[in-house]
Amino acid sequence: MRLEIVPMTLKKANAFVAEHHRHHGPVTGHKFSIGCSDGEKIVGVAIVGRPVSRYLDDGWTLEVNRLCTDGARNACSMLYASAWRAARALGYKRLVTYIYGKRKRGQPPGRWLEMRRAGWRLAVDRQAQAGGRLVPTADEAAVRAEKGIKTGIVL
């Protein structure tokens, strides 16, 4: 199976995310979206936009807000690499993303090794915050436990 990068509208990318992503919903805006196809169907999408954190929104940084695949081999790394090439071609200097994983603090997340091989570096490692409060409600505490540790990755 040969994969290729294809252009993607936000509407189509959000539809793919709504169908395949396990805990995130669609996004409201983007700078660009790309898809990964096996020749017959879309097997993954990346939605790239302004950073969610206002501290990172310096005009030179973009964030991979959603990356979602159906499990196709090498689709994630192909989408991350293509997102970085496109961001760089548009004049951006940095691309960030976040990954979640159930693990102990200090241990690398599951996808970290493949991302490190692609040139990404670890930037932040903290407990995921649900709702942004210092003292979470019972529902927010359950969400934190499900998501695990949130890891910031920078390229």
List the helices and strands and how they pair.
Layout: E1 4-8, H1 10-20, E2 32-37, E3 42-49, E4 61-69, H2 75-89, E5 94-101, H3 112-117, E6 121-127, H4 138-147, E7 149-154
Parallel strand pairs: 4-5
Antiparallel strand pairs: 1-2, 2-3, 3-4, 5-7, 6-7
Give an overview of the whole structure.
The longest helix has 15 residues, at 75-89. Helix 2 links the parallel strand 4 (61-69) and strand 5. Strands 1-2-3-4-5-7-6 form a 7-stranded mixed beta sheet, with helices on both faces. The protein has helices at residues 10-20, 75-89, 112-117, 138-147, and strands at 4-8, 32-37, 42-49, 61-69, 94-101, 121-127, 149-154. It is globular and about 40 Å long. The chain is of the alpha+beta class and 155 residues long. The two termini are 28 Å apart. The protein is built from 4 helices and 7 strands; from the N terminus they run E-H-E-E-E-H-E-H-E-H-E. Helix content is 27%, strand content 32%. It has a single domain (4-154), classed as Gcn5-related N-acetyltransferase (GNAT) (Aminopeptidase).
